[in-house]
Specification:
It is extended and about 60 Å long. About 15% of the residues are buried. A hairpin with a 5-residue loop joins strand 1 and strand 2. The protein has a domain of about 80 residues: GIY-YIG endonuclease, CATH 3.40.1440.10. The two termini are about 40 Å apart. It contains seven helices and three strands. It has about 190 residues and is mainly α.
Length: about 190
């Protein structure tokens, strides 16, 4: 059973913390960790601290469990009590507890939000995200059921000529870099 409640992400080095609420705390912890590891967390203060101090300096704690209908009320009381939006004490940005839970966004609003997120990403940031994701998954075996699901999704897929051309260019660049690495005696070039 999923437990809802109020949680804290605390920096052991500085003592600063982030407070949040979730209808499923374990899932929310995982989401925070994934976003922080990939450098895509929507809270820039927390992301910068994570990058500076490292994952080992952060702990995730449950402050209290509660019913879903009490989440925002209790989160606000924790905000007020701890002063977590004070830059000297915490990482929270918005001093008011709020939630998109149950809000249905129009198709137009969802497109606008998506375009806004895409506009904030530059090439260097995308490269960093890709490298972090690759490092996180390096050496992990892909389960057979996942492999078959990927295979089924790609079966019968038609690629347009532009896509085929881009794949060809990408593959040539990969081969060129691999040859250069072998010639120079470099074991790996981040590939």
């Amino acid at each position: 059973m999923h437990k809802s409640g109020i949680y804290q992400i605390k920096n052991l080095t500085t003592g600063k913390f982030y407070i949040g609420s979730a209808t499923n705390i374990n899932k929310r912890f995982s989401q925070h960790k994934d976003d922080l590891r990939k450098c895509v967390h929507d809270n820039g203060y927390l992301q910068n601290a994570w990058n500076k101090y490292g994952e080992q300096d952060f702990v995730f704690n449950v402050l209290e469990y509660c019913k879903k209908d009490k989440l925002l009320e209790l989160e606000q009381s924790w905000f007020d009590w701890t002063d977590c939006c004070n830059r000297d004490k915490g990482y929270n940005i918005n001093p008011n507890a709020n939630s998109n839970l149950g809000i249905k966004f129009s198709d137009e609003a969802r497109v606008n939000m998506s375009n806004g997120q895409k506009a904030n990403l530059n090439v260097d940031h995308l490269i960093k995200i890709t490298k972090l994701a690759a490092d996180a998954n390096r050496g992990k075996a892909v389960p057979d059921d996942r492999k078959s699901k990927i295979s089924r999704s790609l079966t019968g897929r038609k690629l347009n000529n532009n896509h085929v051309y881009n794949l060809s260019i990408s593959n040539r660049e990969y081969v060129r870099r691999k040859r250069a690495a072998n010639i120079l005696g470099i074991m790996s070039m981040g590939m």
